[in-house]
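Exercise 7. Given the encoded structure of a 594-residue chain, write a plausible sequence.
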C-alpha cells in the first residue's frame, strides 16, 4: 500500500462538526451509503431516509483458493470498494454532499496489517498481497479441535465450540505456521472493522465482530447500552485466561492492542468521520459520519428483521421480534434469531449480547455452503455447459432455466407438486462441514440416488434435491432452536438465494412457516446504510432506524396440501438418517484403521 493510501490510528482529522458546517451544509436530501464486501465482490448501495434503494453497483475482488486455504487482499478489496461507491453514486445521480452517513458490512474474514497499516502475508506462498484469511477458509480445523478441548467457559457463548471459521483458530494457525508474519502484525482485525478503520483511522472494534467471531463477552457492557460515548468503551470483555490457555497469551499484551482495546455498539460514530484521504478515494466529502460495522449476515438481519406488517410492530413488539428468524442466503446461509434472555443452544453460536439488535441476545445458526453448494452441483455436472448456453440464449439465469424445467417435468409426470420429482434423490448438504446444529466441520456431503444419466433433466433433479437438503438443514436448525427456548414462527429472508422462487417455496413448505421477503431485496446493503444513518444521530438508536427503514414485500406461505407436508416429513427423516449413517461408517473405518 503506497504512502498516499495509508491511514494510521493517530492521524488527526478535523472534527465532524467543522466538516458538517462547511461541506455538508444544508444538503438537498439525506442519503445513506451502505458498503458490503462479500466473498466475490464489493458492493455499494445508496438509500433514502425511508430505506428505499436509490442505486447500487458492485466491483469484483480477487480470491485465491487452494484446498482448505482461501485468501484475499485488503488492498484489492479497498480499491473495489472505492470503484463500487463511485459507480453507485453516479448511477443513482447522488452528489457527494448528499451522502450523510456511511456503514460497512463484510464477511467475517481475518485481516493482518503492520504498524504502517500495510498488509502482512497470511499465506504459505509468502505473497504480501494475501493478507486476508477468508471466512470460509478451513486451514485451522486442528487448531479449533485443540481450542475446544480446553473447555474454556467462553466456549459456552458460541454453542460449546469454536468453528475453524472463527478467528482464534486462524490466529493460532498463523502463529504456529507463519512465525515471521506473526511477529510483524500490529493489528488483527475482522474485515468489516478494518474497512471502518481504513475509512476513519479509528480502530475501535464492533461488538458484532468481536462477540461473534473472537469470543469477546459483550455482556460485560450491559451498563453502557444507552451511553452516547460507547465508542470509547474500554474492551473489558476479553477473557485473558482463555487466550493464555490456547497459546495466544501475547495477544493480551498492551491492553489487547492487536485485537482491540476499545469496542462500540454497531452504528456508533467513529473518530471524526471519513478522513480526507479516504473521502478522496471514495469520491465523498470528508467528515461524514461512519458507523461502527457489522458482519454481512448481521447487517442483513438489521436490514430485514423489522420488515413486518404494521400490526406486528405495535406496543408488544419487544417480544414479537423474538418470534422471527432471519435467513441471510448467499454463498452460505446464516440463521439469525434474537431473544430477551440468553439461551444456550448446543451446536448453535451464541448467545451474543447486542451483537445485532441492541439489548437482545443473538442466536446464530448457519450452513457453510448453500449458494456455493448449488453452484458446485451445477458446475460439476456433465450437462453444465449445455445448460449455461441455453440459459444465455434465453437471457435468463441458470437457476431460472432449471426452475422452468422442473415445472415442465412436473406437468409431464402428472405430479401435483414439484417436490415429488425427487422421490428417489436425497442430498445431505454438508459438503463444507456442518456448522449448525451438529457443529461437525468433518461432516461430508451425500448424494443418494445417482444413476448413469447425465442429462439436463437429471441435473435439474440434483439441483432440486440439493435445494431441499438445504431447506431440511434449516428446518433442523429451527426445530433445535425452538426445542431450546426460542419460539420462532416466522422467517424473513434476504440475500441472493431469496430471489429464487423454488428455493423460497421449498423452505416454506419444509419448515411450515411463512417467509416474508423485504420490500428492498438488498437487505445487507440496507443494514450497512442503517449503520451510517444511526451514526449521523438522526435516529436515537439502531432499533428506531431499523423500524424507519425496513419495509415488508412479498409473503410466501407454506402449501396447505397435506400430501406436501407428509412427503417432506418422510424426506426429512431420510435427511437426518444420512448423517447418522455417516457417523456409523466413520466409526467403522476408524476402528478398521486403528
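Solution.
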Amino acid at each position: 500500500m503506497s504512502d498516499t493510501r495509508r491511514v494510521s490510528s493517530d492521524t488527526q482529522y478535523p472534527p465532524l462538526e467543522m466538516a458538517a458546517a462547511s461541506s455538508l451544509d444544508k444538503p438537498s436530501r439525506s442519503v445513506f451509503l451502505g458498503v458490503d464486501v462479500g466473498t466475490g465482490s464489493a458492493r455499494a448501495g445508496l438509500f433514502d431516509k425511508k430505506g428505499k434503494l436509490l442505486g447500487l453497483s458492485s466491483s469484483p475482488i480477487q480470491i485465491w483458493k487452494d484446498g482448505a486455504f482461501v485468501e484475499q487482499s485488503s488492498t484489492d478489496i479497498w480499491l473495489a470498494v472505492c470503484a463500487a461507491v463511485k459507480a453507485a453514486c453516479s448511477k443513482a445521480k447522488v452528489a457527494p454532499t448528499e451522502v450523510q452517513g456511511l456503514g460497512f458490512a463484510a464477511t467475517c474474514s481475518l485481516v493482518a496489517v503492520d504498524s504502517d497499516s500495510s498488509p502482512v502475508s497470511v499465506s504459505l506462498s509468502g505473497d504480501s498481497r494475501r493478507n486476508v484469511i477468508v471466512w470460509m477458509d478451513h486451514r485451522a480445523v486442528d487448531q479449533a479441535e485443540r481450542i475446544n478441548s480446553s473447555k474454556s467457559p467462553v466456549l459456552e457463548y458460541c454453542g460449546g465450540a469454536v468453528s475453524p471459521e472463527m478467528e482464534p483458530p486462524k490466529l493460532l494457525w498463523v502463529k504456529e505456521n507463519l512465525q515471521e508474519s506473526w511477529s510483524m502484525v500490529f493489528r488483527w482485525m475482522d474485515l468489516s472493522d478494518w474497512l471502518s478503520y481504513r475509512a476513519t483511522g479509528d480502530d475501535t472494534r464492533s461488538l458484532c465482530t468481536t462477540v461473534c467471531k473472537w469470543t469477546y463477552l459483550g455482556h460485560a457492557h450491559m451498563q453502557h447500552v444507552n451511553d452516547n460515548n460507547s465508542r470509547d468503551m474500554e474492551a473489558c470483555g476479553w477473557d485473558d485466561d482463555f487466550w493464555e490457555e490456547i497459546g495466544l497469551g501475547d495477544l493480551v499484551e498492551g491492553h489487547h492492542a492487536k485485537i482491540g482495546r476499545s469496542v462500540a455498539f454497531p452504528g456508533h460514530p467513529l473518530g471524526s468521520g471519513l478522513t480526507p484521504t479516504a473521502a478522496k478515494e471514495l469520491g465523498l466529502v470528508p467528515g461524514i459520519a461512519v458507523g461502527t460495522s457489522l458482519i454481512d449476515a448481521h447487517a442483513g438481519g438489521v436490514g430485514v428483521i423489522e420488515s413486518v406488517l404494521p400490526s406486528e410492530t405495535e406496543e408488544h413488539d419487544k417480544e414479537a421480534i423474538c418470534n422471527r428468524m432471519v435467513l441471510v442466503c448467499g454463498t452460505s446461509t446464516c440463521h439469525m434469531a434474537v431473544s430477551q434472555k440468553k439461551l444456550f443452544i448446543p451446536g448453535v453460536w451464541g448467545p451474543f449480547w447486542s451483537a445485532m439488535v441492541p439489548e437482545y441476545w443473538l442466536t446464530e445458526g448457519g450452513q457453510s455452503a448453500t449458494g456455493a453448494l448449488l453452484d458446485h452441483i451445477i458446475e460439476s455436472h456433465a450437462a453444465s455447459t449445455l445448460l449455461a448456453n441455453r440459459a444465455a440464449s434465453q437471457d435468463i439465469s441458470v437457476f431460472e432455466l432449471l426452475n422452468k424445467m422442473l415445472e415442465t417435468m412436473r406437468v409431464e409426470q402428472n405430479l401435483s407438486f414439484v417436490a415429488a420429482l425427487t422421490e428417489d434423490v436425497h442430498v445431505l448438504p454438508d459438503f463444507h462441514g456442518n456448522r449448525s446444529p451438529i457443529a461437525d466441520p468433518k461432516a461430508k456431503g451425500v448424494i443418494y440416488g445417482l444413476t448413469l444419466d447425465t442429462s439436463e433433466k437429471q441435473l435439474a433433479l440434483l439441483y432440486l434435491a440439493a435445494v431441499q437438503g438445504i431447506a431440511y438443514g434449516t428446518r433442523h436448525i429451527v426445530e433445535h432452536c425452538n426445542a431450546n427456548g426460542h419460539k420462532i414462527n416466522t422467517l424473513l429472508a434476504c440475500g441472493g438465494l431469496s430471489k429464487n422462487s423454488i428455493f423460497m417455496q421449498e423452505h416454506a413448505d419444509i419448515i411450515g412457516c411463512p417467509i416474508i421477503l423485504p420490500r428492498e431485496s438488498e437487505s445487507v446493503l440496507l443494514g450497512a446504510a442503517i449503520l451510517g444513518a444511526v451514526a449521523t444521530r438522526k435516529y436515537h438508536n439502531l432499533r428506531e432506524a431499523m423500524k424507519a427503514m425496513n419495509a415488508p414485500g412479498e409473503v410466501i406461505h407454506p402449501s396447505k396440501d397435506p400430501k406436501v407436508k407428509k412427503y417432506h416429513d418422510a424426506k426429512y427423516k431420510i435427511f437426518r438418517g444420512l448423517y447418522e449413517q455417516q457417523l456409523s461408517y466413520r466409526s467403522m473405518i476408524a476402528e478398521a484403521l486403528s
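Remark. The chain has a mean pLDDT of 92. Students should compare their own answers with the one above.
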